[in-house]
Amino acid sequence: MALILYRVTLQRLQRAGCDLPPEPALADLCRIQHHTVRSINGPPTQGVSTIAPRQADGLDAVYARNPSHDAQMARL
């Protein structure tokens, strides 16, 4: 199963014009973080770290949607 997933990921990356092998591409995607910020007076605010262009390319290559980004996180 792991070999099949590796090969499919490799093919999708190559088809998308990405020159990275699956390991570094997945390592880039692992750096995307979901954040929850809690303040004393207000409700918690959630968001996603900024998606770098290389991460966005990796998400597109494997047909994954970009994680949603809460508008309030941009103010922090």
Q: What overall geometry do the principal axes of the alpha carbons give?
A: elongated
- By DSSP, the count of extended strands is 2
Number of helices: 3
The whole-angstrom Rg is 16 Å
The span between the termini is 42 Å
Fraction of residues in helices? 40-55%
Task: Specify the biggest β-sheet.
Answer: 2 strands, antiparallel
Instruction: Return the string of H and E elements.
Output: HHEEH
Task: Report the average pLDDT across residues.
Answer: 81
Low-confidence stretches: none
In order across it, which strands form the biggest sheet? 1-2
Structural class assignment? alpha+beta
Give the percentage of residues in beta strands.
5-15%
Explain what this protein looks like in three dimensions:
This protein has 76 residues and is an alpha+beta fold. It has a two-stranded antiparallel ribbon. A hairpin with a 7-residue loop joins strand 1 and strand 2.
In short:
The chain has 76 residues and is α+β, with helices and mostly antiparallel strands.
Characteristics:
alpha+beta; 76 residues; 2 strands
